[in-house]
Amino acid sequence: MPTFRQPGTVLTDHVFGVPLDHAAPDGEQIQIFAREVRAADAAPGNAAGDLPWLCFFQGGPGQPSPRPKGRESWLDRALREYRVLLLDQRGTGRSSPANRQTLARLGTPEAQARYLTHFRADSIVADAELIRRRLTGGAPWSVLGQSFGGFCAVTYLSQAPDGLAEAFVTGGLPGLNTSPDDVYLATYPLVAAKNADHYERYPADAEQARQIAAHLVSKDVVLPSGAPLTAQAFQALGMGLGMSSGSHELHYLLEDAFDGDEISDSFLYRVESMLTFAAAPLYAALHEACYAQGQATGWAAHRVREQFPAFSAEAALDGQDPVLFTGEMVYPWMFQADPVLRPLADAAEILARHDQWPRLYDQARLAANEVPAAAAVYYDDMYVPQQFSVDTAARVRGLRRWVTGEYEHDGLRLSGGAVLDRLIGMVRGTI
């Protein structure tokens, strides 16, 4: 187990073998990578080294765990009383990858889609349970779930509550019965509100966005990768509007879009880094599936968008309304436009029609929950609608909720440990 030091921390790498399909434990095996982080004064051999475990579930789906640099952000607060396990969820980071190269070895799109059905929260939690027993000797541990990681924490409370000592959730209490359609019917208006906030903050951006969209409608523009930059791809740059600095970053991107009468190279390179799924192909393949329980997703974001005509770029160009950027939505055209997704297009189509997704949440078990738990619900959350989160909080016995407008979706990372500190206090009864 390789170990190295950073300022104030000692990090140890772990690799675990787990079944691809937990229903077939003797079948194909994959690897899960996780990084243990301890405070330097709690390194092995020190008296303080016997700290309880806190397993972190990253947002996503399909995103690797953070790569820490010392005792930064929420990690500093956590290391006061835990040793932290940063889990690369299956298919991400240094865990066995699931991408166009590895999935190509499976041959048919049907085989690829079948393989990907094992990469949702239920499988991630089953991985965590195997890892917990190997690391703790069977003792329960604490979990912290951010965004999609919170979905995993609620699945954990449903699937294996005996493995948990306590659970913390930030910006990630899912609706227990919400379908993918329900999610997008709620999030499109939230995204529209974030657009309105952005244009109120930066009024000149309305005309700049309209000029960019008009240029993309009238001319063929390609990104450095060769992917087309269409008006609908341009609209997808609103993904970050629900983060604390997202509006400002979008403004600075837009102001440098043109070099004379043409789209500038600097704009194209920056846009490509924002639009490509090269670092997280699973995010595109399984984003809608992370909401599915017993029903096909059927490209929900694409279908529901038709009920919100204000999101049509062409309609905005014909009138006085601003171009609306979209948010955390995955569309079929992305699998044709992005070179790293193109080989997965047929598998994604099969997944969109798949209607045998098992349930992720056990409402009876949650109603009888005995695990101490607390959740931060962000009032203006663009990604996880607070009305679903508040309803779920009321259905999980003993879960304490904190609804706040002080932070956006990235409050855990940007609060310097304040959000986690409050949740710990809520669980311990000091707040």
Descriptive labels:
431 residues, alpha/beta, 40% helix
Characterise this structure.
The structure is a single chain. By secondary structure, the protein is α/β, with parallel strands linked by helices. The protein has 2 domains: 242 residues, 3-Layer(aba) Sandwich (Rossmann fold), CATH 3.40.50; 174 residues, no CATH class. Helix content is 40%, strand content 15%. It has 19 helices and 11 strands. A 9-stranded mixed sheet has the order 1-2-3-5-4-6-7-10-11, sandwiched between helices. A two-stranded antiparallel sheet has the order 8-9. α4 packs across α5. The longest helix is centred in the middle third of the chain and has 22 residues.
Shape: globular
Low-pLDDT stretches:
none
Can you name the CATH architecture of the largest domain? 3-Layer(aba) Sandwich
Radius of gyration: 22 Å
Helix content: 25-40%
* Number of H- or I-type helical stretches: 19
Largest sheet: 9 strands, mixed
Mean pLDDT equals 96
CATH topology of the largest domain: Rossmann fold
Helix and strand composition category: alpha/beta
Order of helices and strands, N to C? EEEEHEHHHEHEHHHHEEHHHHHHHEHEHH
Highest CATH level, the class of the largest domain: Alpha Beta
How far apart, in Å, are the first and last alpha carbons? 39 Å
Q: Strands across the major sheet, in which order?
A: 1-2-3-5-4-6-7-10-11
